């Protein structure tokens, strides 16, 4: 699977993949708090973040042993990494050998880089793709970008927890956006065409019918926030406020 495909998926809270076979070896998940602007959330963005994470030690390739030194089979598990306390017991009772921590071998000379830990703490830069339409509280999952566990194996996932800054005049609710437009009492009485800002930084024309009263709500269909991983969009609502002065 390509990294970008995974990045592009984004993840709504709670939709985590569970893989029972990998659960034992998979490293811990990481959480990273990221604040983005209103526009970045609406249209998506790429953000480079820096993580301090556990990675497989490259010096020993994750074995924990100094390269070139012997790694005899563990006597506690006969090299399998697992032990069954009772021979007749069920599959579920198979546990990881605590003498070798599941590796299946003994380390005679510790790796000089990781001192036998098989992993090292590294500063890592990750380019995270934030899909269009995300909002406050959404976690963007980057599969495999988390920590490697002390037993090696597949790294955990990285969850980028988003906080979205409010906009100075657009108010967002899910995929809909509200904009408050002030018009004069003359415009309201006679009708007019008013410019309304759109999310992409442009403007659109709103036709105000003659006799419009204050607090009337106009709906500009599909000019709101995109639905994540969809071509659908919410709406832009314009709440008209008639100002008292006759300018
Ligand atoms: Zn090492
Ligand atoms: Zn063992």
Description of the structure:
The chain has 247 residues and is mainly β. It has helices at residues 3-9, 20-23, 38-43, 185-190; strands spanning 30-36, 45-56, 82-83, 95-96, 119-130, 139-142, 158-164, 171-173, 176-183, 192-197, 203-208, 216-220, 236-242. The strands form five sheets. A four-stranded mixed sheet has the order 8-9-13-12. A hairpin with a 2-residue loop joins strand 8 (171-173) and strand 9. It is rod-shaped, with a radius of gyration of 28 Å. Residues 1-23 have low confidence and may be disordered. Bound molecules: zinc ion (ZN) (2 copies). One zinc ion (ZN) is lined by residues 57, 59-60, 64, 111, 113-114.
Per the CATH scheme, the topology name of the domain at 3-55 and 122-164 is: HSP40/DNAj peptide-binding domain
Largest sheet: 4 strands, mixed
- Helix-strand string: HHEHEEEEEEEEHEEEE
CATH homologous superfamily name of the domain at 3-55 and 122-164?
Urease metallochaperone UreE, N-terminal domain
Helix count, DSSP H or I runs of 4 or more residues = 4
Shape: rod-shaped
Oligomer: single chain
Structural class designation: mainly beta
């Amino acid at each position: 699977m390509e990294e970008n495909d995974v990045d592009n998926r984004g993840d709504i809270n709670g939709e985590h993949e569970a893989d029972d076979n990998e659960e034992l070896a998979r490293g811990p998940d990481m959480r990273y708090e990221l604040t983005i602007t209103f526009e970045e959330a609406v249209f998506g963005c790429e953000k480079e973040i820096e993580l301090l994470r556990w990675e497989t030690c490259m010096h020993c390739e994750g074995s924990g042993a100094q390269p070139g030194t012997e790694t005899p089979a563990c006597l506690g598990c006969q090299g399998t990494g697992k032990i069954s306390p009772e021979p007749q017991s069920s599959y579920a009772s198979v546990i990881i050998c605590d003498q070798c921590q599941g590796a299946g071998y003994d380390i005679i000379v510790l790796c000089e880089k990781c001192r036998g830990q098989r992993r090292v703490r590294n500063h890592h830069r990750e380019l995270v793709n934030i899909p269009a339409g995300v909002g406050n509280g959404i976690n963007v999952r980057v599969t495999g970008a988390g920590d490697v566990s002390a037993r090696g194996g597949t790294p955990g996932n990285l969850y980028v927890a988003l906080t979205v800054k409010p906009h100075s005049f657009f108010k967002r609710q899910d995929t809909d956006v509200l904009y408050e437009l002030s018009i004069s009492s003359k415009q309201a009485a006679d009708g007019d065409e008013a410019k309304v800002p759109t999310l992409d930084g442009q403007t659109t024309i709103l036709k105000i019918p003659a006799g419009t009263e204050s607090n009337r709500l106009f709906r500009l269909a599909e000019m709101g926030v995109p639905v994540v991983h969809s071509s659908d969009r919410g709406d832009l609502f314009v709440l008209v406020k008639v100002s008292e002065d006759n300018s």
